[in-house]
Design a protein that fits this description.
The protein is mostly helical. The protein folds into two domains: about 60 residues, no CATH class; about 170 residues, no CATH class. It has eleven helices and no strands. The longest helix is centred in the C-terminal third of the chain and has 43 residues. The protein is globular. The protein binds fe (ii) ion (FE2) (2 copies). One fe (ii) ion binds next to α7 and α11.
């Protein structure tokens, strides 16, 4: 199903409730009534084409918004990506951490196994933080500056320098998978969980880990398939101007 602006938001959510946190990142909150996507976007000053692009990218993994790619600024995409980073680091990761920390009381599991899980998760968290920091410190600011240069025709030296030293194709090539550790962590629970008196608390942890993994995969796909081509096009435009 392709999500379109005439659709009622409530119907879209009944169809795919995983979109709720995505919609929330646009500051559009539950209590939609019978409003359509277009109504809600206008009300909340959200660019409708951009909103639909993100929703469809999350909803359908095959979706690729080629013809809409130029209909919204890259800075909008960057703002959205930073908001989702915040959601991972400030909401999801602490939630999962708390679930892991509560395990010893709930399951009476051995301290040794618990420490192993905790260590694994904290290593994963460090990797995720590192990945996000690199994007927010190095990649995203460049994209915002690049877009300003394309729009104004004034090209600062810093943009020219980064365009030559660290073009977006380099980022794309190094856009590593941070999900590998998450996969190992899930496997410890799925394959090697020692006897516990109650394994229900692990259901919840697994559910959260699978959900985080999904969300991060979608996020990375948006970076690779929407952000990178947009930036490549801008770099091309600027290079042709500076020749
Ligand atoms: Fe990111
Ligand atoms: Fe990323």
């Amino acid at each position: 199903m392709l999500i379109q602006k005439e659709m009622k938001m409530a119907d879209v959510i009944h169809h795919d409730h995983f979109l709720i946190p995505v919609i929330n990142r646009f500051d559009i909150h539950l209590g939609f009534g019978d409003k359509t996507i277009d109504d809600l976007c206008r009300e909340n000053n959200v660019n409708t084409v951009f909103f639909l692009t993100i929703l469809n990218a999350y909803h359908d993994h095959e979706y690729f918004p080629k013809k809409h790619l130029q209909s919204f600024p890259a800075s909008l995409l960057v703002t959205y990506l930073i908001r989702s980073h915040k959601y991972y680091l400030e909401v999801k990761v602490p939630e999962i951490e708390k679930l892991i920390n509560n395990l010893s009381d709930e399951t009476g599991m051995e301290e040794e196994t618990l420490t192993l899980l905790k260590n694994f998760f904290s290593e994963y968290k460090q990797e995720l933080i590192h990945h996000i920091q690199r994007e927010e410190d190095r990649v995203y600011p460049y994209i915002v500056e690049l877009e300003k240069a394309v729009n104004s025709g004034i090209i600062p030296d810093s943009v020219t320098r980064q365009m030559n030293d660290y073009p977006i194709t380099d980022y794309e090539a190094e856009h590593e998978n941070v999900e590998e550790k998450l996969f190992d962590l899930k496997n410890i629970i799925i394959k090697y969980l020692p006897d516990t008196k109650d394994d229900k608390p692990f259901f919840k942890i697994l559910k959260e880990l699978f959900a985080l993994e999904n969300d991060l995969n979608d996020h990375a796909r948006i970076e690779d398939l929407i952000l990178v081509p947009k930036v490549e096009a801008m770099e091309k435009t600027l290079k042709s101007k500076t020749k």
